[in-house]
Amino acid sequence: MDLVIRQAEPGEYDTLGDITARAYLQDGLLDFGESDEYLGELRDVAKRAAAAEVLVAVEDDRLLGGVTFVPSGGPMADIAGSQEAEIRMLAVDRTARGRGAGEALVRACVDRARATEGCVRIVLSTQRTMHGAHRIYERLGFVRTPDRDWNPLPQLDDITLLTYELTL
Fold first, then answer.
1. Phi, psi of 161 (to 5 degrees)
2. What is the pLDDT along the chain (168 residues), one digit of tens a residue?
3. How many CB atoms lie within 10 A of CB 30?
4. What is the largest CA-CA distance in the chain?
5. Contact between 90 and 65 (Cβ < 8 Å)
6. Which residues contact 155 (CB under 8 A, 6 or more apart)?
7. 56 and 28 Cβ atoms separated by less than 8 Å
8. Cα separation of 65 and 105, whole Å?
């Protein structure tokens, strides 16, 4: 596989938004399906790219997936504090899974965090059912941080995001 990880180009934003939204929908990660407000956030790659770094995995000119890397203190951060970077919205097209794209995207984020002056750790949130992603994170040395777990929708008691961190 000739996999390339690079910054997303504006002409790829719609495709990446579709891949990301489809991945979350197909994996049952959105509580309200097509009406979920977060679906709009997942599709709006241009908004993410204006506030953070959006990376894509490409193989033979085919977009396989992407991730949002939020450098220390960026506006897209959910849980990152000072001196922390954050990984958000990792998604790989279902037909491309198991070929290393997800891991390569996470590794690229770790590399960027290490290159960010003053950054001492990289953090992320994940849903309980994202077992494939959990395996990637743990294989790369991320550890669970239960004390940071949080609920993005306090009105719904049953949604708790698990958190991981990697000290750089």
1. -85, 135
2. 589 999 999 999 999 999 999 988 876 665 554 445 677 889 999 999 999 999 999 999 999 999 999 998 788 999 999 999 999 999 999 999 889 999 999 999 999 999 999 999 999 999 888 888 999 999 999 999 999 998 876 655 567 889 999 999
3. 17
4. 45
5. yes
6. none
7. no
8. 8
| The amino acid at 76 | M
The position carrying tokens 């690229």 is 108
Distances from the Cα of 126 to the Cαs of 1, 42, 121, 134, in angstroms?
27, 14, 17, 8
